[in-house]
Specification:
170 residues; mainly alpha; 84% helix
Length: 170
């Protein structure tokens, strides 16, 4: 715990490049710290809401059940949803919208796994052809390079021969 507090102090005291270095060095720790801070903030918000709710009703903090119907879990669930991060709510809305756009039935996991297996087997079959074609292409490129080098050498020999004949004539 002291180590985590030390990391936070180092981060607070560092300049921009120092903060980046600290983030990179202690990245897994920062993820855990941020999640811990988020959970503690949720807890504090929840406790404050409960306190305000009790104060508004005039409760002293002692719960006395006056009816046979009691559902404190529903109120707690609603509070938890209200405290959720905007990011989680946005993700939930996006997922709900994506599923609502799908016409017909949503595919079952078994169907998706079967389709995946089929695609994977087709990939394995075609991969051998791909490897063969790749090897052929490599051989053709080597042959092309060799031919280019041969013609380049011949051209250089011709140029040298031409230069020798020009020197003899001079």
């Amino acid at each position: 715990m002291r180590e985590e507090a030390n990391i936070v102090e180092q981060y607070a005291d560092a300049d921009t490049s120092g903060r980046i270095d600290i983030l990179i060095k202690y990245y897994p720790n920062f993820l855990r710290l941020v999640e811990g801070y988020k959970q503690s903030l949720r807890y504090i918000i929840k406790q404050e809401k409960e306190y305000k709710h009790r104060a508004a009703r005039g409760d002293l903090g002692v719960r006395v059940q006056t009816s046979e119907i009691s559902d404190p879990t529903a109120r707690e669930a609603i509070d938890n949803i209200m405290i959720m991060d905007r990011e989680e709510i946005t993700l939930h809305k996006a997922a709900k919208e994506a599923f609502s756009k799908i016409e017909g039935k949503i595919p079952k996991i078994k169907e998706l796994n079967a389709e995946y297996d089929q695609v994977l087997s087709e990939k394995k079959k075609t991969y051998a052809d791909y490897r063969r074609a790749k090897q052929d292409m490599k051989e053709l490129q080597t042959a092309k390079y060799n031919i280019e080098q041969f013609y380049k050498k011949e051209e250089q020999d011709r140029q040298a021969e031409k230069q020798k004949t020009e020197e003899k004539t001079i």
